[in-house]
């Protein structure tokens, strides 16, 4: 649901009741870096409780993803169980049940997991790419990336492209602040071009510098942006 497989993270899955049904639904999934200084850990747990309160949650699930659990998880699992106990206490204070909590070194096929509320329960993760949730995400057009870094790479500026686009664009100093063509046909044409570029990117076709410059000019018009 995050759109990528998190690493070294604390996940909080917030559950809210479904109206007129004896069931709950996933309201949201919150993530924070797991390896933080001890003096910040209590703040993180309080923030988790605040999120549950804000969303009118009745229950929550927690997942600790800690790559250090391999090769020897013994001592770390004790610490993670204490953390789960602390989170349980914070949630109980706001009338939210910690329904389950788990720890795993990674969200990947055959990675081991441990139940933090019941030390006798453990297992291995099934292929996450084959899960029902993953399939639903992909069918809705929401790809799941391998990591946050992969997503960050998608939006990382390309210095060479920026330089080329800047040469194609007129200088900002020569452009009036709000020059737009009031013609509905012109605006519709710009929107159609924008949609063509969106479809191209979705199909894996990279934008040229000229395409980016064209989009930049079109998006100066608030009507196109809206």
TrEMBL record:
Tell me one Pfam family matched here.
DUF4192
Listed InterPro entries: DUF4192 (IPR025447)
Please identify the protein, giving its name as recorded.
Answer: DUF4192 family protein
């Amino acid at each position: 649901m995050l759109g990528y497989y998190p690493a070294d993270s604390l996940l909080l899955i917030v559950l809210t009741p479904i109206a007129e049904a004896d069931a709950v639904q996933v309201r949201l999934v919150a993530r924070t870096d797991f390896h933080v200084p001890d003096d910040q850990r209590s703040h993180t747990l309080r923030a988790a409780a605040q999120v549950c309160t804000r969303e009118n949650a009745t229950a929550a699930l927690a997942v600790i993803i800690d790559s250090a659990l391999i090769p020897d998880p013994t001592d770390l699992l004790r610490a993670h169980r204490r953390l789960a106990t602390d989170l349980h206490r914070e949630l109980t204070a706001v009338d939210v049940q910690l329904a389950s909590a788990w720890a795993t070194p990674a969200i990947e096929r055959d990675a081991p997991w441990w139940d933090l509320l019941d030390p006798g329960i453990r297992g291995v993760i099934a292929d996450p790419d084959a899960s029902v949730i993953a399939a639903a995400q992909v069918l809705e057009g929401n790809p799941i990336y391998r990591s946050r870094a992969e997503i960050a790479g998608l939006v990382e500026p390309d210095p060479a492209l920026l330089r080329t686009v800047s040469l194609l664009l007129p200088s900002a100093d020569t452009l009036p602040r709000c020059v737009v063509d009031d013609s509905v046909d012109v605006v519709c044409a710009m929107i159609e071009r924008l949609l063509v570029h969106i479809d191209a990117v979705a199909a894996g076709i990279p934008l040229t510098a000229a395409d980016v410059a064209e989009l930049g000019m079109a998006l100066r018009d608030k009507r196109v942006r809206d």
